[in-house]
Each structure stands twice: as structure tokens, then as C-alpha cells.
Amino acid sequence: MRLRVFSGTRATGRLHLGNYLGAIKGYIELQNDPQYECLYMAVDVHTITTPYDPKTLAVATRNIILDYLAAGLDPQKAIITKQSLIPEHTELAFLFASVVSVARMQHLPTYKDKIKQFPEHVTMALLNYPVLMAADILIYQASLVPCGLDQEPHLEITREIARKMNQLYGTTFPEVQRFTTPTASVPSLIGEGKMSKSIEGSYLNLTDSLETIEARLAAAPTDSGQGKVVPATGGVANLLTFVEIFEGQAKRQSYEHAYTTTGISYQALKRDLAKAIYQDLAPIREKHRTLTAKPHLVDEVIHQGAKRARALAQSTLHEVKEKMGFV
Ligand code: TYM
Q1: What is the CA(26)–ligand 1 centre distance, in A?
Q2: Is any atom of ligand 1 closer than 6 Å to the C-beta of 26?
Q3: 3-185+295-323: what fold?
């Protein structure tokens, strides 16, 4: 059997540059390596763990798949679909919930962040979020997960669940590893923290216009442009990270040199950087345009992907139910 790979993106709208650089580039690298069998999903069931709009959920989910395909995921090489079409994920998550303590879940940093962000929505689904994620991965016996650094606490839970299940019931779940891209944590455009859909102004979508990219970069905080030491954190540091990603290390070094000598013109830096980002994303915009004009293609990918994924998921679930004594 080829080694399995699983990853997913919550269906909160569109893919942003953080998703792309931190995760999707890894998805693509692995789908192109024939030693792996890859499954990539829009994880729409995870989306309901925080407040969401039922009127837009299906469209947002479809948009994630559309962006996946535009970014280079290939249904000939990977199984691409949406999580809710494979109800076995949620069934396995319930079985897994029996080997995880409530206290362990309450102490997760991601849970603590979310209950601060949504104090009115502290639900069982939110507490169970990482258990469902473990089920997503382990239902395919996947051992490799291309994702950003922020998912590491959830992968640790996945490893703990796999060990516990193997120990208690004699299942043979693998120990999952994170597959990382060179940019496992893509910074926010607005100074602190990481690029995130839930922080307005922090992100760029993959199909943003040049004007939008310019406007977002224009709002990125900077300083006087000159000093003894180039800042290691904050707005300037983040801009230099993007310069390195999109314009190369030599360009970054020339700005760093300018910072400690003649000074940087941030207006020129931001203008050149916006152009470089826009050009880099041109093939994605082009593909997105083509796919938008052929909606049936996306639906077909989702439908075919679900059929293939479901057969794999059913086989693991059956085995687990047998080992847990249901059969
Ligand atoms: P989500 O939807 O927040 O993000 C999707 C992927 O994008 C990565 N990512 C980033 N990487 C680097 N820098 C950033 N600023 C950045 N922002 C987002 C995330 O690490 C992720 O890989 N819990 C997951 C969804 C999920 C999942 C799974 C992932 C559900 N089941 C099973 C992997 C395997 C999440 O919320 O990702």
C-alpha cells in the first residue's frame, strides 16, 4: 500500500496566502510524488464548530475546492472532496472521543484561543474539534499531513489517540508526521501574529486584484525606514519575509543593507512587492477564471472524490468497530 497523506482546510470562504504557502504547496509536492496516495478535503463539518452562516456554507466549501484546483491540486493525482460527504469521519470521531479526556482537550491552546474569541459559543463541537481532525486523518491510516505549524497541537492529539486506540483495541493506526513547506508559519500583514482569515487586514486571497494587494500592503505598519538594527519582529520584519519569498534573498539583503545605511523607501518596497506577489499568482488567477466558467467540473471532482474516499473510510471504520466489540 502507498503511504497515505491527508490534509484539509476549513470552509470559511477562500484560500489565502498563508494557506497556500504554509500548506497547499506541501499538498502539491506530495501529490506529485507517486509513493503517496493523497486525500485533500474542504473540511466543512469543522466549520460549524464556530459561528457560521448556513446560507453560505455550501458555497464557501465549493470555493475552497475551486481554489484548491486553481492552485494546482490535480484530481488525477489526489482524491479531492468535501468532508461532509463522508459521514464515517464523524462516526469515528465519536468512537475516538471515548479515549480522550475532557481536561486534555480543555487545555489545548487552540481551544483556549477560540473560547476567548467566541465566549458565547463554547460548544461540545468546539471541544471535539481536534478529535474530529484525528478521525479525518486516521480514517485513511494517513501518516503524513502537509499543514502549517499552527496545527501541531492537533497532530499531537492525533498521535495520542492513535497510540491509545492501538493499545486498548489492537488497531494499527500510524504515528502521524507533519510535512512542512519552507514557510510553515506565514506572518500577518499587520504586524503581529500569523496570517489568518479571522483577522481582517492580515491576509491576501489568492485571486486578489493588484489594487487590493497594493491597498493591503499600504496598510502594513512600518517605521522610519532606518536604524542600527533591522527589526526581527513586527510589520517591517514581516514585509521583509514576503520580500524574501516573492523577490528572493538578494533583494531582502539589499533592503536590510539600506535599512542600516541610506534608509528604505517603504512606498517603493510595497509597490514592487505587490507587483511580485500579483505576478507570482497569475497562473492561479488564470486557472480560477477557467474553472469558474465550468462549474460542473468542480462538482464532478467533489462527487468522484467522495466515492473513492468513502470506500477507504468505510473499511477502516468497519475494522475499528470490530475491534471495539460492536461486530
Ligand atoms: P485552516 O483551515 O485554518 O488552514 C488550512 C491550512 O492552512 C494552514 N495555514 C497556515 N500555514 C502557515 N501560515 C499561516 N499563516 C497559515 N494559516 C493557515 C494551516 O496550518 C492548515 O494546514 N484544523 C485545520 C483543518 C483540518 C485539518 C484536518 C488539517 C481539519 N482536519 C486534518 C489537516 C488534517 C484548520 O483549521 O486549518
Answers
A1: 12
A2: no
A3: Rossmann fold (3.40.50)
